[in-house]
Amino acid sequence: MFESIFTSTADNSINISQAAISLGASIVMGVIIAIVYMYICKKEGYQKNFIIGLLMLPAVVSVVILLVGSNVARAFSMAGAFALVRFRSAPGSAKDISIVFFTMAAGLACGLGYVTFAAAFTAVMLLLLILISAFGFADRNEGRKQLKIVIPESLNYNSVFDELFDKYTSENRLNKVKTTNMGTMYELTYEIRLKNDDAELAFNIAQKDNEIDELYEKVRKDCLQVMHSNPTENINQGVRLVFIGRYLERIGDHITNICEKIIYAKNGEMIEIG
Questions:
Q1: For labelling alongside 236, which of 38, 113, 212, 243 has CA 20 to 30 A away?
Q2: Taking the model in full, what pTM does it have?
Q3: CB 263 within 8 A of CB 271
């Protein structure tokens, strides 16, 4: 029964023991690679979906190699099938792409039957990654922050924030662009260094939120008085002005939250302002 499962109609069969060893070894290597990746990325963070991909990729590649074997027609068929896959999001950082190729190489070696070589290759590469992470090789000094901005897909993001970056940052770099919300929005990930990340300045700015709240309350009361005086002519404009004031007040709240996070990043103390 099992022999028929592992034998094709094209007189090409898969050795059951070899397939089991290759698949088992690729799964183990995928688990180890994923664990090491989580270790070296624990500071900057990682995505669960990417970890799952690292777990599955060696086994998938190993099975593909086992199925293809030395059959050229199968190889072209597999290439055509995988060519149908499309991704709209950016592939990720250079490190993530390198890890993906490393994981694929381990799966390829297992699928071809070079399990010992795959294990040695994986051990050497993982040791290298651990040493790079432990000794901080190529790490830059502190002070850089990650900034994420979500904008409409129709907006040209190449230079839209240049004026703000020139004014408030000493360094800025666009690291990643990916689509969100069913492809209607772009999520931009920048790495920036603020010209002034003084905690005292952030506290003083956050204190101005009370002034914004008072101004909003005054605008709201004035608008209500005007709308009551002549509802027919003033109601539409009054409602719009109240909403504008509310939006500006919410912007002030968000700025206060940002200032609180700056203080936390600088002093290690979470405070609530306002």
A1: 212
A2: 0.50
A3: yes
User: Domain limits of the chain?
Assistant: 2-135, 144-194, 199-267
> CB-hemisphere CA count at 13 Å for 43?
7
Percent of the chain with pLDDT over 70: 81
What are the tens digits of pLDDT across the range 188-228? 888 888 776 677 778 888 888 888 889 999 989 998 898 88
Query: What is the residue whose two structure tokens read 């990340």?
Result: 197
Alpha-carbon distance of 90 to 92, in angstroms, equals 6
Environment class of 122 (CB within 10 Å of its CB; exposed 0-12, middle 13-18, buried 19+)? buried
Mind listing the pLDDT tens digit for each residue in 70-98? Answer: 677 667 766 665 665 555 455 566 677 77
Of 110, 272, 262, 130, nearest to 196 by C-alpha is 262
Band of residue 49 on the pLDDT scale cut at 50, 70, 90: confident
The number of C-alpha atoms within 13 Å of 79 and in the hemisphere containing its C-beta is: 6
Instruction: Give yes or no for a contact between 239 and 228, defined as CB atoms under 8 angstroms apart.
Output: no
> What residues have CB less than 8 Å from 58, skipping those under 6 apart?
26, 27, 29, 30, 33, 103, 104, 106, 107, 110
The DSSP line for 131-175 is HHHHHTTTPPPS-EEEEEEEEETTS--SSTTHHHHHHHEEEEEEE
CATH number of 199-267: 1.20.58.220
